[in-house]
Amino acid sequence: MDSVKQLRFDVAVVGAGPAGIAAALAAADSGKTIGLIDDNPAAGGQIWRGAHNSAQPSASSIWFDRLNKSAVQTVRGTRVFHAAQGELTAESDDSATQISYGKLILATGARELFLPFPGWTLPNVMGAGGLQALAKSGLDISGKRIVIAGTGPLLLAVAAYARQCGAKVVAICEQTTRPLMARFALKMTLVPGKAAEAVRLAYNLRGIPHWTDCWPVAAFGNRRLESVRISRQGQTSEIECDYLACGFHLIPNIELPRMCGCRLENGFVEVDEYQQTSIAGTFCAGEPTGIGGLELALVAGEIAGYAATNWEDRARHLFSKRARYQKVVRILQDAFPLRPELKNLARPDTLVCRCEDVSHQQLREHSSWRGAKLHARCGMGPCQGRVCAPAAQFLFGWEIDSVRPPLFPVRCSSLAAIPSHSAPRN
Ligand SMILES: Cc1cc2nc3c(=O)[nH]c(=O)nc-3n(C[C@H](O)[C@H](O)[C@H](O)COP(=O)(O)OP(=O)(O)OC[C@H]3O[C@@H](n4cnc5c(N)ncnc54)[C@H](O)[C@@H]3O)c2cc1C
Fold first, then answer.
1. How many Å lie between the centroid of ligand 1 and the Cα of residue 48?
2. Could you tell me if residue 419 is inside a domain?
3. Which positions of the chain have pLDDT values less than 50?
């Protein structure tokens, strides 16, 4: 059996993205022991993935520098898969770890929403952020023809990054309407710091076709993607490409907060003004509380860190700054609602659960997520429903009503490391 490590922190922070880093640093000011746990090999989360290696100074450098100089203990490559009664159980490549804590801050971030369409499982069709993450990890995309599709501002960030890597971005296909996109651009310029960012982005994207009312209908190829058929303002056309990077905005990673018993509101973790959840002593910051971007994640993380270490006055100082960035949550919600046509893309034989090969037709025979799981094994594979559950929620209107341990597939020896007194909860 693998060894079981034991760790104890006054404050444990799960997730080392911007929200988690800011929370850990704020909490560290108190002199208490702070643990920052993340499943990636390095801190940074989604937006700062790979940035710690970069020679070029960026907004992230200041945070990495502070983190390196702080007393925060970073626990890398370690994925928390169970939580109960004040204890977390996590797994890394070589061991399981039991983590106990006084206070807990959950900063588990978000992931992309994928919607099924014919051909979406072909090699080289991938998430927009997924392609960016691969490129940041070394995938050579220079000279490749890339279509970027779906919805949300991430498409623009990915297009700019892909171009910077030498890729030829053939088109950005945004499903929202032109008026909503225009209103989004206008409102974002009123958020502090965003006008300059928008100008920079527009410059970096110059010349790339950016089509609204446009989405992928099908992807084609023999062994891998060769072309994508798109619908654009009611007309379909086919575009040859090497990659289709496709994501329909972000959804919060709420599985761990849910397992901790935190109450949700409209699909997000409910928090008070100090970022405390419905469970006393458990805080949450960043995307699980609302998709609002980097600046909101940072300031909410700081508030959580101070509040968790009883520095309410320092936390209160940041309330007005947070309020300025909280507007972004609403702006994004209003700008990128998913259009009903996207529910009709999948054909009967299109896979919805790609881990367990469950087709759209098989799912239509059921009336709830639970029924689909029990009878068709939908969501029972390695991703544990992370991809297909939100898709099924959108396609069929099902409520995803439970989260079960382990949160991720783990070794039997890691399951044995769950403390016997912390019984699994639904
Ligand atoms: C794929 C992707 C790409 C993005 N790219 C950009 C971009 O280029 N530009 C931009 O402006 N915004 C981007 N965003 C949005 C950006 O991530 C957010 O705006 C914001 O920075 C989120 O910060 P966060 O700390 O809340 O979450 P994240 O940065 O997502 O950090 C959360 C961290 O928690 C870890 N984690 C989650 N659950 C566990 C667990 N159980 N155990 C251990 N670790 C766990 C995750 O691996 C991750 O490292 C992207 C988002 C996604 C999903």
1. 8
2. no
3. 425-426
